[in-house]
Amino acid sequence: MPELAEVEIARRALATWLVGQGAVRLTLRDPRLLKSGELGPPSPVASVRRRAKILVLERPGHSWIVHLRMTGRFSRHDGPGVRAVLSPQDGEPVYFADTRCLGELHGVHTRDQPAWFAARKLGPEPWPEQRPASWWQDQLGGLRTPVKVALLRQDRVAGLGNIAASEILWRAQVSPTRPARELDPQAWSRIGRETIAHLDHLLAVEDVEIAYVTQGGENPFLVYGRAGEPCPRCGAGIARTVQSGRSTFACPACQDR
């Protein structure tokens, strides 16, 4: 499923494929994709930006806002599950595929964007700037919930998903079950450092046209989806547990700091 790194990869790809390619027409094959607003007439895409796990295609006076959800992805290839087509005047078509039909498209006037995002109550982001321990403590350190669950609070730290939380905590050698309020500054410092390391790693190894691991793509992760395999750090078996209805992957032997 798309998380911050995958959405950033999509942002970069869309900027390359659409910006400077003349007027872009958006055609819906599945009208249910448009959740609010209107498509508007064809016009140039001036820029593509990302806010947490949401993409914003900026056009004169109007934006297309896309939330990929579980299976949404952009590609240069037509095929099953395509719900929309972006057709630039001077470039090749771009296809939005979404096999589970959970993705969302919103047509939002530029003047209404601040209010639209304010309603989502998204917190500050943990990347690309490395946040110090004090920042993490301010955002999450008062929560009683396990740190893995705390990392998914989009109103506190926006952009991290279930996979990222498992990967970051493994890298930082922090148990996912430890209450967030019990972590010391050293643990938060490691979490901040390893958040950057995890996201930079994915941006370096994942392809522009992503094949999600949950849909049979190659697994680029160190522990996620690797229950029973040896821990890359200590060799003990990776364990899968469930927290708040979501899969957590961790090493019981070396994630206790």
Oligomer: single chain
Low-confidence stretches: none
The assigned structural class equals alpha+beta
Q: Report the span from N to C terminus.
A: 29 Å
What fraction of residues sit in β-strands? 15-25%
Average pLDDT over all residues:
94
Proportion of residues in helical segments: 25-40%
Helix count, per DSSP? 6
How would you explain this protein's 3D organization?
This protein has 257 residues and is of the alpha+beta class. It folds into two domains: 4-120, N-terminal domain of MutM-like DNA repair proteins (Alpha-Beta Barrel); 133-250, Helicase, Ruva Protein, domain 3, CATH 1.10.8. Helix content is 26%, strand content 23%. The protein has six helices and twelve strands. It has helices spanning 4-18, 113-120, 133-140, 147-150, 162-172, 185-205, and strands at residues 23-28, 34-36, 43-44, 47-51, 54-59, 62-67, 73-75, 82-88, 94-97, 104-109, 239-243, 246-250. The strands form three sheets. It has a five-stranded antiparallel sheet, with helices on one face. A hairpin with a 5-residue loop joins strand 8 and strand 9. Helix 3 crosses helix 6 (185-205) and helix 5 packs across helix 6. The longest helix is centred in the C-terminal third of the chain and has 21 residues, at 185-205. The radius of gyration is 19 Å and the shape is globular. The model has no long low-confidence stretch (mean pLDDT 94).
